[in-house]
Structures are given as structure tokens and as C-alpha cells.
Amino acid sequence: MRGRIPPALCLAVAMALAALLPAACARRSQDLHCGACRALVDELEWEIAQVDPRKTIQMGSFRINPDGSQSVVEVPYARSEAHLTELLERVCEKMKEYGEKVDPSTHRKSYVRVISHDGTKMDLSGVKIDGDVASSLKFACESIAEEYEDELIEFLSHEADNVKDRLCSKRTDLCDHALHIPHDEL
């Protein structure tokens, strides 16, 4: 009988592992969606900052009122709904420029840019770069952009502080674990 594991113990260990598996998968999914949300906001804010602040777009009705006037106003293009909607259509392609980094103490995953916007060399130690990471992040980004399009446009149409925290943690709960993450980490 020595060396043989009792079937009851095997069953108990298997049940314990089965109970832990959904929690581990949920945390992985939460890390992915939180990272995608934060990367999405970073990319949108960067794209907005690249637009000439003097560029405007006409908004309003192009109908002529009975008095002969039009209800058209010029608004800054960078934060216009038209520009933000255009950005949301293509911004998730930028997720291929991200890699995955695992915190050694918490085993939580975060997502970091592996290609800088300005061409400067980046420290990529401990960053996993592969197609699976990029495609998972892109898919999560597209899901978030579609599901929270109105919220993204609402937050980004006006200059605001801490859009990442306000959107990804408070409004959507995608990062409810991440309120302690530094703003520049993701």
C-alpha cells in the first residue's frame, strides 16, 4: 500500500484545482481587459495630441433657417465626435505594438508599448512579445471600443484628467483591481 495515493485524496486535490481554475482564468481575462482599456485610452490620447490645435471642423445643421442664417459652429477637430469615431475605427491596430509583462510578485499581467511613438529605444526586459499577446489584446481592445464607444467619446471629447482611471476603473470596472497601478505603467 506504500506509495499509492488514496483515491479520495486524488479527488479532493482535483476538486480544489478545478475550483481555482476559473479564478485564475478570470484574473487573466481581467488583466487583459484592463490592459486593453488602458492601452486604448493611451493610444487615443496620443492620437488626439498629434492633431494641430488650430484645425477645426464645422458642426451643426447645414439647413438654412427662415431668417437666412445657418446653425453651424466650428469646433476643434482633435476632440470632435467625427475625429474620435474615426480613431476608434482604427486604434486597436496599434495593439500589435504592445507586449505583455508579468509582475514577479503578484503574477498580474500588464501591457506595455514595445515600439515607441518617437523611435527612442525602450527597455523591453521581461516583456513577452508574440502574436498571441497582440491578437488577444487587439480583440479585447475592439470589444471595449465597441461596447464603450459612447463613454470613450464622452470622456475624450473634453480635456479631462485621469481618463484611464475614470473610464477603465470607475465607469466600466474593467480595472477594479488596478487603482493602485501607476498611471504610466500601462
Detailed description of the structure:
- It contains five helices and five strands.
- By secondary structure, it is an alpha+beta fold.
- A three-stranded antiparallel β-sheet has the order 4-3-5, with helices on one face.
- Strand 3 and strand 4 (109-113) form a beta hairpin.
- The protein starts with 6 loop residues before the first helix and ends in a 15-residue tail after the last helix.
- Residues 16-26 have low confidence and may be disordered.
- Total strand count, please? 5
> What class, by secondary structure content?
alpha+beta
Sequence of secondary-structure elements: HEEHEEEHHH
Largest beta-sheet characterization? 3 strands, antiparallel
Question: What is the beta-strand fraction?
Answer: 15-25%
Q: Rounded to an integer, what's the Rg over CA atoms?
A: 23 Å
Percent helix: 40-55%
Number of helices: 5
Subunit arrangement of the protein: single chain
Unreliable residue runs: 16-26
Distance between the termini: 54 Å
Shape: elongated
| Average of pLDDT | 82
- Strand line-up of the largest beta sheet: 4-3-5
Which structural traits does this protein have?
186 residues, alpha+beta, two-stranded antiparallel sheet, 5 strands, elongated
Please describe the topology of this protein.
Elements: H1 7-49, E1 56-64, E2 70-76, H2 81-90, E3 98-102, E4 109-113, E5 127-128, H3 131-147, H4 149-156, H5 163-171
Antiparallel strand pairs: 1-2, 3-4, 3-5
Helix pairs in contact: 1-3, 1-5, 2-4
